[in-house]
């Protein structure tokens, strides 16, 4: 399977997971009903300064965030951790996380959701 970015659309998610602002998301892959093991989704995201993704729990999947550009704070199980370009954040099953762009420019990051 080949998914071409130029054939996808950018979607805006207002107050994603109860956060603030609008998450701009290019859904490269979106198989949200997937229950068997494998990649569930792949997103190419932009989060504006001061905007956030609200804290949420992962019960049936794991997520991998790859910070490409910008800086912010990833809350992992209630603990704030600074993140910046080049960092990778993994949220395992049974854990929670959120993301806040604390920088002065848009934060660009990829998110890969996986069912184990």
Please, what is the average pLDDT? 95
- How many helix segments? 0
Spatial gap, N to C terminus: 20 Å
Q: Please, how many domains?
A: 1
Helix content: under 10%
| CATH architecture descriptor text | Sandwich
With strands numbered from the N-terminus, the spatial order across the biggest sheet is 1-2-3-10-5-8
What oligomeric assembly is this protein in? Answer: single chain
> Which CATH C-level class is it?
Mainly Beta
Question: What would you note in describing this structure?
Answer:
The structure is a single chain. The mean pLDDT is 95. Helix content is 0%, strand content 59%. The chain has strands at residues 10-14, 22-30, 38-47, 52-57, 62-69, 71-76, 79-84, 88-91, 96-101, 107-115. It contains no helices and ten strands. It has a single domain (10-115), classed as Jelly Rolls, CATH 2.60.120. The strands form two sheets. A six-stranded antiparallel β-sheet has the order 1-2-3-10-5-8, with no helix packed on it. Strands 4-9-6-7 form a four-stranded antiparallel β-sheet, with no helix packed on it.
In short:
The chain has 116 residues and is mostly beta strands.
List the helices and strands and how they pair.
Elements (H helix, E strand, L loop, with lengths): L9 E5 L7 E9 L7 E10 L4 E6 L4 E8 L1 E6 L2 E6 L3 E4 L4 E6 L5 E9 L1
Antiparallel strand pairs: 1-2, 2-3, 3-10, 4-9, 5-8, 5-10, 6-7, 6-9
């Amino acid at each position: 399977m080949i998914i071409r970015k130029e054939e996808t659309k950018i979607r805006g998610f207002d107050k994603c997971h109860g956060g603030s602002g609008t998450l701009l998301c290019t859904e490269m892959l979106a198989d949200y009903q997937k229950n068997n093991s494998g990649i569930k989704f792949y997103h190419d995201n932009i989060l504006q300064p001061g905007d956030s993704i609200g804290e949420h729990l992962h019960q049936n999947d794991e997520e991998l965030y790859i910070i490409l550009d910008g800086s912010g704070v990833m809350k992992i199980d209630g603990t704030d951790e600074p993140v910046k370009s080049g960092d990778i954040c993994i949220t395992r099953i049974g854990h929670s996380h959120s993301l806040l762009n604390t920088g002065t420019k848009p934060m660009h990051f990829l998110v890969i959701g996986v069912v184990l």
